[in-house]
C-alpha cells in the first residue's frame, strides 16, 4: 500500500477531512510536473529490448566519415588503439557469431579484452555512444550519425558488411549476430533482490571462523615485485611523520619530486593532457616536439591564436579543436611553458 | 579505549622511551648521496643500509641510555615559539585546512592504471586515517568523463517512467524543492567494485592506499528516493528496476534494484559530513545505494526512470562485469560482500621498534553489520578476536583494534571479517577456487602484510 492510500485510509477511519486534504498532496508546493519536451530531452536511454531507440539509420560509409573526424583521434583508425582507452574492436571470430560466446575469453593468455569481446547487447553501444561520445564533446552526434558510426564499428568488428546500413528496423537482426550475446550470466548472489530470479542463490565463496591450527602453514604465493616498490613514488612521503610507524623510503623526497611546474598543473586542469604528453605523441604532438619545432622562432602569439581557433594540418591529419574554455592569460602561460620545453618543475 | 582493550604485557625492550622518542625513521640514517642512489631506484641498496643501521641502533638502545642531554628533553626544557609568542587570529583560514604537517595524507593516482586522468581513479590514504569517517577532501575519486562544479541553481532532478503507466506524474525538482523535504542522515561506506582489482592475479601495489583506497565512508544527508517516487505517483508494484542517470558528460547510468528503493535505503543525497557534497563526489546531488558498489551511486544525479527491465548500460554490460574461469561474465553483480583490511601497520610502512603496537583496520559488508573480526599474526594459522569500535552500523565501515607485541621476528598480519548473515571473508585460495584470477571486480580476499625482521612491511598473498 502506498503512503498516500495508507494515509487516506487512516483519514477515512478518523473522519478527519483536513488530514485527507493534506495527505492527498503530501508535499504541497514541492516539485512540478515535467513537460513532455523536458522528458523527451533527457529520456535518452535505450534498453536491450530497444525500448527508447529513436527512428533513423546510418551507413557504414557515413560512419567512416564520422569516425575519422570525431573518434579516430582517440580510438585509432581501426578502433584498435590503446593510447587513450582499451581497444574497442578485435578478438572476436565468425565462429563466435554462431555460438554467441567469445572463445578468447576462456583463454588466460589472450592479451586484451576489447569492447566487442565483452558486450552482449548492441543496444548498449547505441545508448552509450549517443550519451557519452565523443568523450570531449558528448551528446553532439545526431541520432543518424550514432547509427552510422555504430554501423562502422560493427563493420570493423566484421559483424556486418561494408555496404550495410544500420537502422531501427534491422538492429534486432544485428543483435542476433553479436559475438558474445550469450556471454552473460546473472547466476550469482550479488544482486540484492529477486529481479533476476536469483534470490535463492547462496554466496559462492566464504570461509569458516577457525581460530587455531587452521592450516599446516601459511603458503605465500605472491610478493610485491621489486620494480613496483618504486613505481608509486616515495612511500615515506605518503605517511605521517609521527605515530607508531613511518613510510619506507622508496624514492626522492616528495618536495623535490612533486613541486611540479604550475603551468603543468594548468595544462592538466585545462584538459590539454588528455591529448598531449610532455614526451610522447598522443593524439597531438608531444610538447617537447612542439618546443623543438619552434625553437628560436617568435611563434608564441601565433600559437596562442591556434589555441583559440584550433589547429589543423601542422602535425598530421588530426585537428586540434578550439580550446574555447581557456582564458587568454592562461593560453599565454601554457604556450610560453610549452616553448620553454614543457619542464615538469 | 571505549571497549576496554586488554593492556598487553610490557614490551620486551623499551628503546629510549624515556626521552619520548622512538627509534628514528630509516631515512635519517642515510647520507644525502645514499638517498640520491635510492632515488635512482636502488632499493636493494637501501634495504641493506637500513639493516646495518638498525642493528647499530638496536645495540645502543639495549643499553637503555636516553639520547637526549642528561637534564631532559629539549622539547620540554627549551621554550618553544608557540609557547612564547602570539598565534594567528580567528578566520585566518575561512575554510579550515589540515595542518601543513599532514600533507603526506592525500589522494593519489596509481601510475599506469589508466591512460587519461579524466577517466581514472584517485585513492584515499587509508594508511593514515582514524575511526570510520572519511574527511570529504580525502574521499576517493572515480570519474569517467572528468568532474564539474555544477551551479546548484541550474541543476534539476527528474522522475519519469519507462512507460507512462509506471509514473502518474513525471516531475521536475530543483535543489530548493529537494532540500525542503524531510531529510534523513545516515552513515554508509562506498566502495568501488574494482577496489583491490589490481590484485586478483598477484601482488601489484605496495600500500593499502592503492590496494584498498577506493573505499570511503561518510554521513550522507538527503531524501529517500522512495519518497520522491511516491510523490510522483510511481507504481511501485509494477516497478522492478529504476535507472539512475548523471548530469555530467558521461551521463553515467546504472540499473538500481527496486528492493533497495522500497526499503527506504536508497537516498537522493545533497549532504556529506555536515556540508554539501564535494564537486568530485557529485555536487549538488548524488544517489546513495548502501551496500552496493560505488558506480551505482550516480553522481550529479539528474534523472531516475522507473521501469520493469534491466537496462544493460555500458557500465553494467562492458565494465563492472566479472569474468569467470569458464569465459562467462557475471552481469549485475552489485553487492560488496564482507571484507576487511588492516590499515596500520600496513604495506610500505615500517615498525620503528619492537614492543607494543595497536593493530587497527576496517571491516565492512554490503549485506549488513559486521559481527566479528579476527586477526592473525602468522599468516592465518592462528587467530585472535579483535575489538570492534562503536558505532557498528549496517553497510558502514567498522573500525577494529587488537594489541600486539612485536618480538622483532618476521610475521604475517591478516584480518578476517564476518557479517551478521554469518558470511566469513574468504582467503585468496577460496576466492580463486571459484572465481579464478581475471574477474577484476569484487575482490574481497583476506589481505596479508608481511613484517620483516627489519620492521619493513610488504604486501604479500597467502592462499
Automatic annotation (TrEMBL), chain A:
This protein's record includes keyword rRNA-binding: no
Domain Cytochrome c residues, every copy: 58-157, 255-342
Signal peptide residue numbers: 1-23
UniProt keyword list: Electron transport, Heme, Iron, Metal-binding, Signal, Transport
InterPro entries, sorted: Cyt_c-like_dom (IPR009056), Cyt_c-like_dom_sf (IPR036909), Cyt_c_ID (IPR002324), Cytochrome_c-type_DH (IPR051459)
Keyword Heme: yes
Record Pfam families: Cytochrom_C (PF00034), Cytochrome_CBB3 (PF13442)
PROSITE patterns attached to this UniProt entry: CYTC (PS51007)
Top-level taxon of the source organism: Bacteria
Protein's recorded name: C-type cytochrome
Amino acid at each position: 500500500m502506498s503512503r498516500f492510500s495508507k494515509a487516506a485510509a487512516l483519514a477515512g477511519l478518523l473522519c478527519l477531512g483536513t488530514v485527507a486534504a493534506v495527505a492527498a498532496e503530501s508535499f504541497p508546493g514541492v516539485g512540478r510536473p515535467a513537460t513532455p519536451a523536458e522528458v523527451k530531452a533527457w529520456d535518452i536511454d535505450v534498453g536491450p529490448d530497444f525500448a527508447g531507440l529513436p527512428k533513423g539509420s546510418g551507413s557504414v560509409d557515413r560512419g567512416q566519415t564520422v569516425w575519422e573526424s570525431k573518434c579516430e583521434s582517440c580510438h585509432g583508425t581501426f578502433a584498435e588503439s590503446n593510447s587513450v582507452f582499451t581497444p574497442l574492436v578485435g578478438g572476436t571470430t565468425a565462429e563466435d557469431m554462431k555460438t554467441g560466446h567469445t572463445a578468447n575469453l576462456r583463454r588466460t593468455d589472450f592479451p586484451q579484452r576489447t569492447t566487442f569481446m565483452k558486450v552482449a547487447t548492441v543496444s548498449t553501444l547505441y545508448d552509450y555512444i549517443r550519451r557519452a561520445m565523443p568523450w570531449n564533446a558528448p551528446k553532439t552526434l545526431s541520432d543518424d550519425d550514432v547509427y552510422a558510426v555504430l554501423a562502422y564499428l560493427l563493420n570493423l568488428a566484421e559483424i556486418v558488411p561494408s555496404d550495410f546500413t544500420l537502422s531501427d528496423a534491422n538492429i534486432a537482426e544485428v543483435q542476433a549476430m553479436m559475438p558474445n550475446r550469450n556471454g552473460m550470466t546473472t547466476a550469482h548472489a550479488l544482486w540484492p533482490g529477486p529481479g533476476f530470479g536469483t534470490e535463492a542463490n547462496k554466496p559462492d565463496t566464504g570461509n569458516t571462523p577457525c581460530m587455531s591450527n587452521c592450516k599446516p602453514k601459511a603458503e605465500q604465493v605472491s610478493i610485491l615485485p621489486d620494480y613496483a616498490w618504486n613505481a608509486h613514488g616515495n612511500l615515506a612521503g605518503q605517511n605521517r611523520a609521527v605515530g607508531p610507524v613511518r613510510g619506507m623510503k622508496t624514492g626522492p623526497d616528495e618536495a623535490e619530486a612533486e613541486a611540479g611546474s604550475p603551468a603543468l598543473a594548468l595544462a592538466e586542469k585545462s584538459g590539454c593532457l588528455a591529448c598531449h604528453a610532455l614526451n610522447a605523441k598522443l593524439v597531438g604532438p608531444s610538447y617537447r616536439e612542439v618546443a623543438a619545432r619552434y625553437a628560436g622562432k617568435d611563434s608564441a602569439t601565433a600559437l596562442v591564436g591556434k589555441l583559440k581557433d584550433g589547429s589543423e594540418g601542422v602535425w598530421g591529419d588530426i585537428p586540434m579543436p578550439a580550446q574555447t574554455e581557456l582564458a587568454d592569460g592562461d593560453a599565454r602561460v601554457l604556450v610560453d611553458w610549452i616553448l620553454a620545453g614543457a619542464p615538469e618543475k | 579505549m571505549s571497549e576496554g582493550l586488554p593492556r598487553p604485557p610490557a614490551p620486551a625492550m623499551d628503546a629510549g622511551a624515556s626521552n619520548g622518542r622512538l627509534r628514528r625513521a630509516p631515512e635519517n640514517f642515510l647520507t644525502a648521496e645514499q638517498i640520491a642512489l635510492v632515488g635512482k631506484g636502488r632499493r636493494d641498496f637501501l634495504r641493506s643500509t637500513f639493516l646495518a643501521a638498525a642493528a647499530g641502533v638496536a645495540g645502543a638502545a639495549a643499553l637503555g641510555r636516553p639520547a637526549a642531554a642528561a637534564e631532559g628533553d629539549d622539547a620540554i626544557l627549551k621554550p618553544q615559539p608557540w609557547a612564547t609568542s602570539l598565534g594567528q587570529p580567528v578566520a585566518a583560514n575561512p575554510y579550515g585546512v589540515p595542518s601543513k604537517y599532514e600533507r603526506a595524507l592525500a589522494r593519489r593516482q596509481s601510475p599506469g592504471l589508466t591512460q587519461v586522468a579524466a577517466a581514472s581513479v584517485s585513492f584515499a590514504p587509508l594508511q593514515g586515517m582514524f575511526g570510520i569517517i572519511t574527511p570529504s577532501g580525502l574521499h576517493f575519486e572515480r570519474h569517467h568523463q572528468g568532474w564539474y562544479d555544477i551551479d546548484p541553481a541550474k541543476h534539476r532532478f527528474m522522475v519519469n517512467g519507462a512507460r507512462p503507466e509506471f509514473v502518474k506524474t513525471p516531475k521536475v525538482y530543483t535543489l530548493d524543492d529537494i532540500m525542503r523535504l524531510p531529510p534523513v542522515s545516515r552513515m554508509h561506506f562506498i566502495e568501488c567494485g574494482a577496489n583491490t582489482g589490481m590484485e586478483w592475479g598477484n601482488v601489484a601495489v605496495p600500500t593499502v592506499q592503492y590496494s584498498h583506497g577506493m573505499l570511503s565512508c561518510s554521513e550522507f544527508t538527503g531524501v529517500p528516493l522512495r519518497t520522491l517516487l511516491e510523490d510522483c505517483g510511481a507504481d511501485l508494484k509494477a516497478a522492478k528496476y529504476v535507472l539512475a542517470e548523471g548530469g555530467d558528460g558521461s551521463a553515467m547510468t546504472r540499473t538500481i534494484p527496486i528492493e533497495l528503493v522500497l526499503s527506504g535505503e536508497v537516498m537522493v543525497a545533497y549532504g556529506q559530513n555536515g556540508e554539501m557534497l564535494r564537486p568530485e563526489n557529485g555536487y549538488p546531488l548524488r544517489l546513495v545505494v548502501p551496500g552496493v558498489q560505488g558506480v551505482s551511486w550516480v553522481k550529479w544525479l539528474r534523472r531516475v526512470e522507473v521501469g520493469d527491465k534491466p537496462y544493460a548500460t555500458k557500465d553494467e554490460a562492458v565494465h563492472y562485469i566479472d569474468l569467470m574461469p569458464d569465459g562467462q561474465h557475471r552481469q549485475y553483480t552489485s553487492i560488496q560482500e564482507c571484507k576487511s583490511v588492516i590499515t596500520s601497520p600496513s604495506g610500505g610502512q615500517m615498525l620503528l621498534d619492537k614492543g607494543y603496537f595497536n593493530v587497527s583496520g576496517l571491516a565492512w559488508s554490503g549485506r549488513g553489520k559486521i559481527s566479528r573480526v579476527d586477526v592473525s599474526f602468522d599468516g592465518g594459522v592462528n587467530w585472535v578476536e579483535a575489538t570492534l569500535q562503536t558505532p557498528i552500523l549496517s553497510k558502514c565501515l567498522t573500525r577494529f583494534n587488537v594489541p600486539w607485541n612485536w618480538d622483532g621476528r618476521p610475521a604475517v598480519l591478516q584480518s578476517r571479517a564476518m557479517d551478521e548473515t554469518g558470511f566469513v571473508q574468504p582467503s585468496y585460495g577460496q576466492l580463486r577456487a571459484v572465481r579464478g584470477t581475471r574477474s577484476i571486480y569484487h575482490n574481497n580476499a583476506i589481505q596479508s602484510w608481511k613484517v620483516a625482521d627489519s620492521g619493513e612491511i610488504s604486501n604479500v598473498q597467502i592462499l
